[in-house]
Design a protein that fits this description.
two-stranded antiparallel ribbon; alpha+beta; 8-stranded mixed beta sheet; 388 residues; Jelly Rolls; 15 helices
């Protein structure tokens, strides 16, 4: 990639992905794993209690987890991450109440990689659990193993978010994908980011799932393609049919027990499987943990800035005093150009992977030449949808 510094829509070859994912993880290279199954290391968390309690041991374990997530198979399982299953059951009860309430009110939320209505999803499950039952939330997140794996990949001061997913019998599989950040963009948008940002994107997020019930493979546990996070052009390639075919032929699935947790590099090719059971309602709390470094230095009121700038941009455009490229540069310096973070209950990814941005709205408003009052109303509506 040194020649261009960018990936294109046809970057990457299937043979390269096949070669990367054809290797095996040697258990002898891992000090703390109980076993390795289908290239996925399994860690017995109760047995590692003394290791996690010892600062030097904890750091050594975290270094091993970071190595797996970055350089090895890209995925690991924490067996019995919740030894006390009553905590899981109490959180499940709250989640089920939230699901019932939201389904009655809205009919269910949209999904990024599955059809709306194919499952039940709780957006912003972390905040909703905390506000509905702070004690359960405290006990649920007072988990040293989860804290350690998050810190292993992201360092301290990480930000926890979560979305609960309930897939009923007959629920269809997700399409193969990578995750947030670049995994939530189309290939056209991902191609606008330099190749080195594709590599860095995965270091900003840790993807995880806590099993809230016993999950046999037939219930549709997450399909995973070990080592696929090492495939540089993967954000461009995962949606192409030939790469999806490799995934379908090589992906692995592991059963999970209630209280187990699965964590993986967000660049790993993956997708939830089909629930082929007659009676298992697969409930998982999907943890999406973010690096502390994904923030600007200063807090700006970009809504106020957009309102102030809009009539000026309309005038400069109408009088030919600003080119399209200059307009784009001015908007980039002013408006929020990224869809996240947002309130996915009010601002779901309808018609795509990511919701509308301030920059999108400002571009369209300038082109349409609408009144400042109309633009201000549209901007306020967008701000309301994005608010917690």
């Amino acid at each position: 990639m040194r020649g261009t510094g960018y990936f294109s829509a046809d970057s990457g070859g299937v043979d390269d992905l096949i070669a990367l994912t054809g290797r095996d993880l040697d258990p002898a290279t891992l000090e703390f794993a109980e076993t390795v199954t289908q290239n996925v290391p399994i860690y017995d968390i109760p047995a590692l209690g003394t290791v996690l309690a010892d600062p030097a041991g904890r750091r050594a374990l975290m270094a091993e987890w970071a190595h797996i997530l970055r350089d090895a198979s890209g995925v690991l399982v924490l067996k019995s991450a919740y030894p006390d299953l009553s905590v899981i059951d109490r959180a499940t009860a709250v989640f089920e109440q939230i699901i019932a309430s939201e389904r009655a009110r809205t009919g269910g939320g949209a999904d990024h990689f599955a059809a709306a209505g194919a499952n039940d999803r709780i957006w912003n499950a972390a905040q909703k659990l905390c506000l509905a039952d702070p004690r359960v939330f405290a006990l649920y997140h007072a988990n040293p193993a989860l804290d350690a794996v998050c810190e292993a990949w992201l360092g301290p001061y990480y930000q926890m978010t979560a979305q609960v997913n309930l897939v009923r019998p007959g629920g269809a599989a997700q399409t193969v994908h990578r995750d947030y950040h670049l995994g939530f963009q189309t290939a056209d948008i991902a191609a606008q980011f330099p190749a080195h940002v594709h590599e860095l994107s995965a270091a900003l997020t840790l993807q995880g799932a806590v099993a809230h019930c016993d999950m046999p493979v037939e219930s549709g546990t997450t399909r995973l393609l070990p080592f696929s996070q090492l495939f540089g052009p993967g954000y461009m390639a995962y949606g192409r049919p030939e790469f999806a075919q490799v995934f379908e032929g090589r992906a692995v699935q592991l059963p999970l027990n209630k209280g187990d947790a699965l964590f993986f590099n967000p660049a790993l090719f993956h997708g939830a499987g089909e629930n082929r059971t007659p009676d298992t309602h697969r409930l998982a709390n999907l943890l999406q943990v973010s690096s502390a470094f994904g923030r600007a230095m200063e807090s700006l009121d970009r809504t106020a800035m957009c309102k102030a700038l809009f009539p000026v941009l309309v005038d400069l455009t109408a009088t030919g005093k600003i080119t399209a490229a200059e307009l784009s540069a001015a908007i980039a310096a002013t408006a929020e150009g990224y869809s996240f973070p947002t309130n996915l209950d009010l601002d779901p990814p309808k018609g795509g992977l990511a919701p509308q941005t301030q920059a999108d709205l400002l571009h369209r408003a300038v082109k349409a030449g609408i009144s400042p009052e109309t633009f201000a109303k549209q901007l306020d509506d967008l701000a309301h949808r994005r608010a917690p």
